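Input chain follows. Return structure tokens only.
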Amino acid sequence: MQKNEQQKRKHDFSVEDRRLLKATGVIDVEGFDETKIYAMLEETAFTIGGKDLKVISFSAETGDLRIEGEIDSVTYSPALSRKAGIFARIFR
């Protein structure tokens, strides 16, 4: 994939029965545990909250992410610099 195509990667997600989340346009999964998953998009980040969450699959090449568990929320936030790291996101 060329750099221009990566920069204009579209984001979309769907949730099926609050048990399966499918997302596209994901650049990276910054961190996760059973209650939160932190994912990065081109210009923003999002957090999936819930219980018994598991990353089923993620491809940085295609931008596809699949999450399973009891999904309670999806929250978007401004993307922090990659240098800031996961702890800056957790403790802000």
